Amino acid sequence: MHRLSNPGKIPLELIEVQVGSYTGEDDIIRVEDIYGR
Questions:
Q1: Beta-carbon contacts of residue 12 (< 8 Å; ≥ 6 apart)
Q2: Going by C-beta distance under 8 Å and a sequence separation of 6 or more, which residues neighbour residue 4?
Q3: In this structure, what DSSP letter does residue 29 have?
Q4: 6-32 per-position pLDDT tens digit
Q5: How confident is the model at residue 37 (pLDDT cuts 50, 70, 90)?
Q6: Where are the beta strands (DSSP E) in the chain?
Q7: In 1-37, which positions are buried (b, 16+ CB within 10 angstroms) versus exposed (e)?
Q8: What is residue 9's predicted lDDT score, i.e. its pLDDT?
């Protein structure tokens, strides 16, 4: 599990990279999502 925040004043730019034979997003399990997604 991981979570990311940016307490700084400079906007954060994040690049996500997936590798492997399957790169879909339907295998994501969200745990205690404070944003209600």
A1: 4, 6
A2: 12, 14
A3: -
A4: 999 999 998 988 888 888 888 777 787
A5: low
A6: none
A7: eeeeeeeeeeeeeeeeeeeeeeeeeeeeeeeeeeeee
A8: 95
The tokens describing 19, both together, are 């590798």
Report the distance separating Cα 36 and Cα 17, nearest Å.
24
- Amino acid letter at 27? D
Contact yes or no for 37/29 (Cβ under 8 A): no
Question: What is the end-to-end Cα distance of the chain in Å, rounded?
Answer: 16
Contacts 24+ apart (CB under 8 A), 24-30: none
Task: Report residue 21 as tokens.
Answer: 């034979």
CA distance 37 to 34: 8
